[in-house]
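User: I'm curious what two different proteins look like when written out as structure tokens. Can you demonstrate?

Assistant: Sure. I'll show them one after the other, since each token string lines up with its own sequence. Here's the first protein:
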Amino acid sequence: MKVARFNYQGTQGWGTIDGGDLYTLQGDPYGVFARGERLCALGDARLLAPAEPTIIVACGLNYIGEIKHLGAEVPEEPSLFFKPPTTLLDPGAEIPYPAITRELSHEAELCCVIKRTTRNVAEHEALDHVLGYTCGNDIGMMDILQKDKGLITRAKGFDMSSALGPWVETDLDPTNLAIKGRVNGEVIQDSNTSEMLFGAARIISYISEFMTLRAGDVVFTGTPENGHYVVNVGDVMEVEIEGIGVLRTPVGPKERA
């Protein structure tokens, strides 16, 4: 089932999508729910990022092709960093080009949306704690990352740097999905989630060993080879994942310093 957050005629809510129609959601998106009555045509509503995180956890260096491409050492455990909720960006929304960077970058990723409190969960049970999966773009500033000598906070934690959407797919196996990243229609990343070093279940279980994930939190699972692709003002970034759909993010004008 496709589950979405939306704004329709000034009202925000959760709904389900069937074909080209948006339906209300009966129940709790993080609990028991079902499709309600038809609300409107999908194009008449504005979709919002399909999560309400208290925190976003991201995993780096998680595709073998990207590790080889960067000449990095293969990590023995998931390499994690945090992104604050203020990084969330709605599907289709424009991201302003930050004034402090000249190298804004695109990273296509599969993201997990957590559905209930998750702490000390075994790997074989981890995906039972996931509401579903969505497309993510872990937007970065590569020159700032280099300037900060690999420290992540500024390069990945800036406002609107976590594009998410267009919706959450609840009925999906995350272990073998085609994933593509495009800029202006050109494919720059073409891989499969089977190429992950650590699968979604391993990452979630690993995180839960030391911190609690709550309903609505988001886990980014890493980007395939040719991530960190630099984009320019006016470009359109896209992330497409099999079984989910396409997340589009236009790059807006340069912010004033």
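Here's a second, unrelated protein for contrast:
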Amino acid sequence: MSKLTHLDEHGHAKMVDVGHKPETERVAIARGEVHMKKETLDLIRSHQIKKGDVLTVAQIAGISASKRTSDLIPLCHPLPISKIDVDFELVDEPPSIIITSTVKVTGKTGVEMEALTAVSVAALTIYDMAKSAEKTMKIQNIRLIEKHGGQSGDVVNE
């Protein structure tokens, strides 16, 4: 079994030292889904949700959250992110919104957590914005789709 990297010799949590690692371009893509009733999707599509433009607010929330990942996830390194995209696909069957985030950095550690955080917070924002229309929406399948760069190389998960 390999040594646990986030524990010191006394078993206490520590942030991994990445100072020795080279800076490389790293990209991560994450995806998630918010499932809902057709009527709710129609309200979102036609900009008739009482709180406002659901997808614009969710996009901004996802971007903002990605930039704050190190404040939210213990032991994550703060990163100088160079690009964050949060995109939505409205799907009629089953009625849902597919959220995809792409995060890019030139740095010493990857941006998987930043991409996953963007999707998670965008999904939560969609729920919050549309909960007056439906409280039974389901946030599902948040996952890393792919990552590129770094010591572990490329990973494609879909």
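A detail about the second structure: The two ends are 28 Å apart (CA to CA).
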